[in-house]
Structure formats: structure tokens, C-alpha cells
Known about the structure:
By secondary structure, this protein is of the alpha/beta class. About 40% of the residues lie in helices and about 25% in strands. Helix 1 (about 10-25) links the parallel strand 1 (about 5-10) and strand 2 (about 25-30).
Amino acid sequence: MYRLLLIDQDSMHAERLATCLRERGLGVLIAESIEEAARQLQQRLPSFELVVVVTSGMTEQWLVTLRRLVEASRQYSMCQGPLFLFASHRKCSPNLRLRIERLGARYVRGR
Length: 111
């Protein structure tokens, strides 16, 4: 079973999304905060194969947060860390998408 860490600023949306993902056989942990997510990602042994960050809009703050999470996952890991997906409800500019990809994440536009 794949393990997924879900970071979503809307707790109701996170619960609905987690339920759908669990029905498809994924193990999902919803992070209560960015700090908790960073702690989870700093484990010496990889805990997650996938990290999904869901935002309602793209701001510079989310890029800083994404960088922090990616660095936390690489801090102690001797192997390749989890795949990061950055999902935004709004379309991001090509420049922002490029910055997301440079951080090692994949950009996905949600509906």
C-alpha cells in the first residue's frame, strides 16, 4: 500500500479527498500543520511515497512552504524521497510552475 501525506488548508476538503484516496487503496495521513508535515518528513526511514500539497491559490508563501517540506524530506534520507505533487485550484503562471518543478515537485491544476 502506498502511503501518502496530505497537506490541505481546508480541513473538510482534506477529509473528503483522504476518503476518496483510501477507497483506492492508499494509506493517507492528513497533516494538521506545516510543522507536523515537516516532522513527519524528517524521519530517518521514508514514511511516505507521495506528498500532496493542496492550495486554493498560489502565493510566494506556498513556495517557501514547499521548499521547507522538500528539504525536510531530504534531511536524513539516504535514498530518494517521496514524490511531491503541488495541486492548486487556480491556474499558476508558467514562471511559478517552473519554480515549483525546480523544487522537485510536480504541478497539478485542480478543479
